[in-house]
Structures are given as structure tokens and as C-alpha cells.
Amino acid sequence: MLEIRGLSAAIEDKPILQGIDLTVPQGEVHAIMGPNGSGKSTLAYVLSGRDDYAVTAGSVTFDGRDLLAMAPEERAAAGLFLAFQYPVELPGVGNANFLRTALNALRRSRGDSELDAVQFLRLARAETKRLAMPEDMLRRNVNVGFSGGEKKRNEVLQMAILRPRLAILDETDSGLDIDALRIVADGVNALRGPDFSALVITHYQRLLEYIVPDRVHVLAGGRIVRSGGPELAHELEAKGYAGMLTEAA
Amino acid sequence: MSAATQTLDTVQSVTQSGYKWGWETEIEMDLAPKGLNEDIIRLISSRKEEPAWLLEWRLKAFAGWQQMTEPHWARVEHAPIDYQDLHYYAAPKRKPGPKSLDEVDPELLRTYEKLGIPLKERAILAGVDPASIEGGSQVAVDAVFDSVSVATTFRETLKKAGVIFCPISEAVRDHPELVQQYLGTVVPTSDNFFAALNSAVFTDGSFVYVPKGVRCPMELSTYFRINARSTGQFERTLIIADAGAYVSYLEGCTAPMRDENQLHAAVVELVTHDDAQIKYSTVQNWYPGDAEGRGGIYNFVTKRGACRGARSKISWTQVETGSAITWKYPSCVLHGDDSVGEFYSVAVTNNRQQADTGTKMVHIGKRTKSTIVSKGISAGRSNNTYRGLVRVLPQAAGARNHTQCDSLLIGDCCGAHTVPYIESRNPTAKVEHEATTSKIADDQMFYCRQRGLTEEDAVNLIVNGFCKEVLKELPMEFAVEAQKLLAVSLEGSVG
Ligand SMILES: Nc1ncnc2c1ncn2[C@@H]1O[C@H](COP(=O)(O)OP(=O)(O)OP(=O)(O)O)[C@@H](O)[C@H]1O
Ligand SMILES: [Mg+2]
Predict the structure, then answer these.
(1) Is pLDDT above 60 for B231?
(2) Is residue B33 pLDDT above 90, yes or no?
(3) Which listed residue, of B40, B259, B267, B480, carries a Cα 20 to 30 Å from B446's Cα?
């Protein structure tokens, strides 16, 4: 479903991604690990269409469509969701209002009817409850005054409500307490199925114990340097990137 | 083209040439000759059958105005206005509108559609001659008749409550003692250039008197909107809330108002006695001109409220999106001890619009309190200036002011300016001023778009969030309309 071929991207003429090849088949969850500054978030942004990045080579198709030719909102409509490493604050914009606007925009683009405020709140409350989040999260302004962990949980709440076909989770586990980690993992696992794929970016093997990936990839210096099964994460935990990278070289 | 020339051209194109001095014939009764002098003022006064004192008052204002010069301290620029090149009296119904919707600017119609204005109202708002509205005259006539009967019902309800609400010229006739007692006591004829001009030549406007202890049984908005579709060039509004009274008044309309008069110079005076409260809300959407700023309205307004009584309160709430030029500072003079003044404002400028708005809070009574929340949004190549004065007089012990002044920039070519003046002459007074300027950040836009919102939806959402504190002060139905209006005003400001 997601096919990345020879993808290179630069920011301000500085090359970051240098020929990424990666395929995530429908229904699979892949993990991406890699040292700080290796380009993981860059990959997430390029896939979701942030325009600070210039794609210098390669192609990406999503369900056979040319992803790179689509506007960010079109990618969202096609079912792509990014849980941000650093979620953005929107002062004065209520979380519920934001989510309803987003959900209805997606529904419209798919030809579904829009949800009214009552229908939406019913859905949103149920998801909030399922994810064991306080209900006042819906009333508060988007990410304003949220703690680091609350922001991450809010991303997962959005994902649960928007129900993407491909979710990119950029270090959603960073900054979460142990209970929250479980809740977040449950949130992802609940979506798992033949129609859902995910790209889980993480530094920690622990998350991958809850969300067991089909494949693990190591990104370093803007390239995928190794790929393997879940056991690769264990190996990394044991050797560290430095150890593995010298081996790979 | 200068404001005056354009006004003149428009007016000339709708009247026969060869117009002669005087009011002898039916047709010629429509329009006074252009120019401003004592004779014109006498004509206005006699046409309105005004008492002698009012004519004297007008003439005094005119004498004062002749000594004044147009103010140029505001951060706005406009072609010179030739005040002798305008018509100062025109009876209503003179305006020959377009014959059908086909003759109306399609842009304007598109805007009405987006604002959700019903078809038949669109035609009326666009000034289409009712007799020629498509589908026969019946539609428009019904609409007009409807509103007349609704208005009559409102009138009766108000009358029962003892509230006087009528055109100011009617008040001069029916309640001369009230008008004489209050007119010009908040905004004296000598106050400023535009107020003096207004005092000399005003012809339209509203008068409200709410008697002691009465809570006005309805938002005066509803009534107003049905009755005052076309607004005058020199409007004069006077609202008095007697002891313990309450009234909420809404001025304006979210639909863009076209007017052949380019220059507007209104005066609004509010008076509250002990424990009384006036809530004055404005949603103004004058035609701002085209993208190059051609043909827009110049709006020079003097609005001031006097909290004369103890514990009285005046709140100004305004959402301004229109005009080519806006020059406007709704103010409160807080005489009464413990009286309260509030100013909540959203001013949007786009394309080449210029706005210089703000407020003045003058603290005189003890423990007087004022709150200022100003939200300026600039897009395109526009300029948006907040100018605020907080003055605390020596006797105003324990006075308090809080000013919050936020600017939001959309794009790189617009400007926001904040000019606060604080004069505190009482050491026990507390005056706080906070100002922020922000841009809609790229990461906010991207965050919204990643969730599926279009750029325009994203801007609207962020702008509405930015204005929330002010929008929540508006009467419910208007808050919703104001939101839509903000969206329409900012259309095309991104991308
Ligand atoms: N706006 C920018 N200007 C210059 N360099 C940038 C910019 N944004 C990112 N970079 C650089 O691109 C490289 C990759 O950054 P990226 O955020 O993708 O790393 P990452 O793998 O997500 O790291 P982390 O694990 O710390 O989140 C880094 O060296 C970073 O400094
Ligand atoms: Mg990162």
C-alpha cells in the first residue's frame, strides 16, 4: 500500500534523506528506529506533505496514487495520519471543534454525510473513555497548556477518531508514563486490521513489546541501513546504534 | 478619484441635470444642492420641521466646524475630501437601485450566498428596485410588508415596557425635552472635525430611552435590522438608560452594505444612570472597495458613552470587517463611582484596507474599572492600527484598567501597529497593558492540513480561535454570523 522508492529530500539545500526504499504492505505495522538526527521525522514530514522539504529524487505511491503530487489535506483524505513528534498548539481552538471540523472534512471528501455536534460528541466521548483520557481534554484548546504526555495522548485520540488507513507515529511513546504507553499501544492495536497500516517511529524497544511490528527498519544517515523482524529491535537494544553501524559497515 | 468626486458622480448619474436651487416641485424635493453653508443647514432643519433650538445647535456646530481642520494623526491615507462637493440632504427613496440582480456585482451576490442570506433578501440588500425584482413585484413587496408588520409588533411590546425607540427625527418631534437634555452632552459639537460636521448636518439615526428600572424586553438588534436596511451618511444615535435600566443594542448587518455615499461620519452617544447598563454591539461590513481599494466606504465615527451613574456599565463590542478606511474609537467616560467600561473589538483588514481603531477609557469616579480586549487581524497589503487611551484623573482613586491587545498577521505584506497612551494621575490606580503580535505559523497551518482541513478552513479556525474572547460577547445569533463574516472577509488571504 505504501511504496517508497529511492526517496531523497533536502531542507534548505541540505540533503537529509538519501535514497530511501521502503514498502509497507496493507495491514502491516513497521517500526523505524535510528539515531537522533538521522531523518526519521523528515521522512514523516515528507510523506505527509510539509512543504519546507524539497524532494530531490524518488517516488512514493500510496494505494497506487502518486503521494508526492497530493496536497497535505488530500493525503489526509486518502487516509494518511501523522502523530506529530511535537504536536502544535492552536490557541482559542477547542479540541472538540477542531476534531469535528477535521472529521467532517474527511467525511465530505469521501462522500460521507457530516456528523452534527451531538453525533460527534457521542463518538468523541466514547473514544476518550476507551483511551482512558479525561473528558475535559475535548473541551480544552488544542494542545494549549497540555503536558508533554497529554499532547501525545491527544494525538492518539485524534487518530482514534479520524481512523486513518496509514498512521505514522513519530515518537508518540516519548514522554509517556508506563500506563499511558499501554493505553497508546492499545489505541494502535485496536485499529490494527487488514485496512490499517502503520509506520511507528520510536527509540525504545519497550513500545514494540506492546505494538509488535511486522518489520523493523534502521534509518541512519538518511538511508535504511538494516531491516528485519521484531528481533532486530532487541539486537539494537543490546548493541546500540554505534555497535550495529560498525558491524553493518 | 477623490471621495467627493465619486460621490458626486454617482449622485449625478441618478438625478436629472439642470437641477435648480429650491424645493418647489415633487421631483426636486429629492436632493439638496451640493455644498455646505448655513442655508443648507436651515433647509435640513426646516425639512425636518425641527424646533428653533436644534437649528441654533446645528448652526453653532457648523460655525465651529468651519474653524476646524480634518484630523490627520490616524494611520490612514485617503484622497482629499471636498466637503463643498457633497449633497447634505437627500430624502429617502431617491436611490434608484439596479433594475435586477443581473445588474448587481456578481462578487457581491456570491458573498450574500456564502453568508446564507435568502434570495429575496439579497435583492433588497443589493438595492434592487423592489418593483423590478425577478418573479414579479410580489416577492419583494411581501418582504417589505412582512417587515413592517413584524416591526409594528415589536413597537407595541416596547411601548408596553415604556421603552422609546424611534428615529431621532421623530424623537425630536415627540420627546423634545429628552433629546434637548442629552443631545451633544456626551459628544459635544466641538469634539472633533467629523463630530462637528455630523452635528451640523445629521439627518438619520436612532433614539432609545429606557426608563428607570426597565429591562428592555428584546435585543434592539432584531428590530433594527429589519428597519434600517439603508443607513445614512451622517447618522446620529442617542441611547439613554435611566437608573437601573438595561438595554442591548445591535448596530449593523453582516451583509456587505453598498452605499453610494462614500463618506460616512456617524455620532453615537450613550448615557447610563445609576446601576444602568448599555451593551452596544456592532457588526459592520461596509463595502471595502475592490482588491485595489477602489470605491470603498470611508467610515469616520465618533462613539462615546458616559457612565454618569454609580455602578453603571457600558460595553462596546465590535466586529469590523468593512470600509476602505475605518477611523473609530468607541469610548467610555466613567463618571460614576464603581462604574465599568468595556471594549471588545475585532478589526479585520484585507487587501488594501486601512483601519485605525481603538478606544478611550476616561476614569473619573472612584474604583472605576475598564477592560479593553482588542484583536486586530491583518491580511493582504492592509494596515491595522490599534490606538488606545487610558486616562485616570486625580480623583479616580482605586481605578483599574486591563488592556489586552493582540494582533494576528496573515502573510508578509500587511502591518499591525499598537499605539497605547496611558495617563495615570492617581497613584492608587492600576493600569495594565499586554500586547502580542503573532503570525499564523506554518506549523499550525500544516498541523490543520494534515488533519484534512483546507488552507481556508485552517485560517478560519485559527482566526476564530484568536477572536473567541470578543465573539463570545456578541449576542448568540450574531456571533455565528460574525464567524461566517470573518471567513468571507479573509477569503483569498492564503495560498
Ligand atoms: N529546518 C531545518 N534546517 C536545517 N536543518 C534541519 C531542519 N530541520 C531538520 N534539520 C536537520 O535534519 C536532520 C534530520 O532531522 P530529523 O528531525 O528528521 O531527525 P530525527 O531522526 O527525527 O531525530 P530525533 O530522533 O532527534 O527526532 C537533522 O540533522 C536536523 O538538524
Ligand atoms: Mg524526530
Answers:
(1) no
(2) no
(3) B480
Q: How far is the CA of A189 from the centre of ligand 2 (A)?
A: 22
CA distance A154 to A131: 10
Residue A248: the pLDDT is 57
Say how many Å lie between the CA of residue B442 and the centre of ligand 1: 17
Q: What is the pTM of this model?
A: 0.79
Of A40, A46, A152, the one to substitute when testing ligand 1's pocket (max ligand atoms within 8 A of C-beta) is A40
Q: How far apart are CA A3 and CA A25, in angstroms?
A: 8
Residues 174-213 of A with CB under 8 A from B: none
Q: Is the CB of A17 under 6 A from ligand 1?
A: no
Q: Which residues of B touch A106 (CB under 8 A)?
A: 452
- Among all bound ligands, the one having the nearest atom to the CA of A11 is 1
pLDDT at B444 over 90: yes
Q: Provide the pLDDT for residue B12.
A: 30
Does any ligand 1 atom lie closer than 6 A to the CB of residue A246? no
Contacts of B256 (CB under 8 A, 6+ apart): B108, B111, B112, B285, B286, B287, B322
* B453·A73 Cβ contact <8 A: yes
Give me Rg for the CA atoms of chain B: 22
Residue B273: pLDDT over 70: yes
| Secondary structure of chain A in HEC code, one letter for each residue | CEEEEEEEEEECCEEEEEEEEEEECCCCEEEEECCCCCCHHHHHHHHHCCCCEEEEEEEEEECCEEHHHCCHHHHHHCCEEEECCCCCCCCCCEHHHHHHHHHHHHHHHCCCCCCCHHHHHHHHHHHHHHCCCCCHHHHCECCCCCCHHHHHHHHHHHHHHHCCCEEEEECCCCCCCHHHHHHHHHHHHHHCECCEEEEEECCCHHHHHHCCCCEEEEEECCEEEEEECCHHHHHHHHHHHHHHHHHHC
SS3 for B102? helix
Confidence class for position B16, pLDDT limits 50, 70, 90: very low
For the segment A121-172, what is each residue's pLDDT rounded down to a tens digit? Answer: 999 999 999 888 888 889 999 999 999 999 999 999 999 999 999 999 999 9
Q: Which of A12, A106, A142, A146 to mutate to test the interface with B (most CBs of B within 10 A)?
A: A142
At B127 the pLDDT is 55
- Structural domain count, chain A: 1
Average pLDDT value for residue range B43-72:
92
ipTM of this complex prediction, to 2 decimal places: 0.96
CATH of the domain at A9: 3.40.50.300
Q: Is B177 exposed, middle or buried (0-12, 13-18, 19+ CB in 10 A)?
A: exposed
Minimum mean pLDDT range among A60-64, B188-192, B203-207, B428-432: B203-207
Q: How many CB atoms lie within 10 A of CB B479?
A: 20
Interface of B with A in 423-482 (CB under 8 A): 441-444, 446-455, 457, 461-462, 464-469
What pLDDT does B418 receive? 87
| Averaged pLDDT, B309-329 | 87
Cβ–Cβ under 8 Å, residues A158 and A107: no
Check CB contact under 8 Å for A81 and B448.
Answer: no
Q: Do B450 and A72 touch (CB under 8 A)?
A: yes
Q: Which three cell numbers stand for residue B40?
A: 443648507
Q: Which residue of A has its CA nearest to B449?
A: A73
Which residues in chain A are contacts of B450 at CB distance < 8 A? Answer: 48-49, 72-73, 75-76, 81-82, 84
Decide: residue B69, CB within 10 A, 0-12 exposed, 13-18 middle, 19+ buried. exposed
**Taking 80 as the threshold, does the pLDDT of residue B240 lie above it?**
yes
